[in-house]
């Protein structure tokens, strides 16, 4: 593992304290389920959108939204497949790693990469393990810890392609593990894309000096900016309650399905819904697909053996 150093300046300590304060504000904010779902859905679209702009590809949020609905998955282009893979990687982080007591391992890293990207590991397993061991044995404030893991893996570039976009997911992985998901409303991809010059500058500084201080300061500043944006989005809901094309509206049957799944550990299959509600297989599939794509339930298994549970 590359040797590195960093220092905690008073400015960095101030940013960390501000992040903690903003996190408390976000967690304590009362939101209706529909408003929370709207903000989370818009964040997912933004994250995918900026990730692909970062890659240099042109895609619209409307296209992404259409692709993430059941009707949008019949014929997909190679880029569409990459969009769906990135969404699957975000889902993996949320469903498998949110407030997890497990340690992030080399296998975690390779699994996340395989879910989200098409490249291959370039035989640097031991270096990945050293990075993960260091980051988790020497715990820091979660945003700082995530920034260190992100930068070290970015510098290592262990995969044959997409190392920068993957490092952004590693940042997300560490923040979710420690419960710093900010109600699924943090969008680091937007910040990294919109401040690309500073991103490259901070990365270059680490490569030249082996000092990670500027990178940590850059990332924590971005977290403050993004969290203030989340707060502003909360405030805008008070004065601008509007119909948005991304607002997730469930019909009565879908709401009842969610209510049934409130019981921890309960699961339902397509056939269960057909029997409960006297609907066709196609109608049950549409209900389940819609709720799964919006992150309200998670599918487990494949084919006819698939069942769904609420997370």
Architecture blueprint of SSEs:
Blueprint: H1 10-28, H2 33-54, H3 61-67, H4 78-97, H5 106-116, H6 125-137, H7 142-156, H8 163-177, H9 188-194, H10 196-209, H11 213-239, H12 252-260, E1 267-269, H13 270-277, H14 281-293, E2 297-300, E3 307-310
Antiparallel strand pairs: 1-3, 2-3
Question: Would you mind describing this structure in some detail?
Answer:
The chain has 311 residues and is mostly helical. The chain has two domains: 10-239, Fido-like domain (Fic-like fold), CATH 1.10.3290.10; 252-310, Winged helix-like DNA-binding domain superfamily/Winged helix DNA-binding domain (Arc Repressor Mutant, subunit A, Orthogonal Bundle), CATH 1.10.10.10. The protein is 64% helix and 4% strand. It has 14 helices and three strands. A three-stranded antiparallel sheet has the order 1-3-2. A hairpin with a 6-residue loop joins strand 2 and strand 3. The chain is globular and about 65 Å long.
Give me some keywords for this one.
14 helices; mainly alpha; three-stranded antiparallel sheet; 2 domains; Arc Repressor Mutant, subunit A; 311 residues; 3 strands; Fic-like fold
């Amino acid at each position: 593992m590359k040797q590195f150093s960093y220092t905690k300046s008073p400015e960095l300590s101030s940013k960390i304290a501000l992040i903690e304060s903003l996190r408390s504000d976000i967690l304590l904010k009362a939101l209706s389920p529909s408003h929370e779902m709207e903000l989370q859905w818009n964040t997912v679209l933004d994250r995918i959108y900026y990730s692909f702009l970062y890659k240099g590809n042109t895609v619209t949020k409307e296209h992404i939204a259409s692709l993430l609905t059941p009707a949008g998955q019949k014929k997909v282009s190679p880029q569409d497949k990459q969009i769906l893979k990135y969404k699957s990687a975000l889902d993996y982080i949320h469903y498998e790693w949110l407030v997890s007591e497990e340690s992030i391992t080399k296998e975690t890293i390779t699994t996340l990469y395989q879910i989200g990207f098409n490249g291959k590991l370039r035989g640097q397993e031991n270096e990945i393990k050293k990075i993960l061991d260091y980051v988790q044995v020497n715990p820091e404030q979660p945003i700082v810890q995530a920034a260190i893991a992100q930068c070290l893996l970015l510098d290592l570039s262990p995969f044959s392609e997409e190392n920068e976009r993957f490092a952004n997911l590693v940042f997300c992985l560490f923040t979710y593990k420690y419960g710093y998901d900010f109600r699924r409303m943090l969008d680091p991809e937007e910040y990294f894309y919109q401040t690309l010059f500073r991103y490259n500058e901070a990365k270059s500084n680490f490569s030249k000096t082996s000092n990670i201080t500027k990178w940590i300061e850059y990332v924590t500043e971005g977290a403050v900016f993004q969290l203030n944006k989340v707060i502003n989005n909360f405030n805008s809901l008070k004065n601008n309650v509007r119909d948005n094309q991304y607002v997730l509206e469930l019909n009565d049957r879908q709401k009842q399905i969610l209510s049934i799944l409130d019981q921890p550990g309960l699961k339902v299959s397509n056939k269960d819904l057909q029997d409960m509600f006297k609907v066709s297989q196609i109608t049950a599939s549409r209900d389940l697909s819609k709720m799964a794509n919006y992150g309200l339930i998670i599918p487990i298994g494949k084919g006819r053996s698939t069942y769904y549970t609420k997370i």
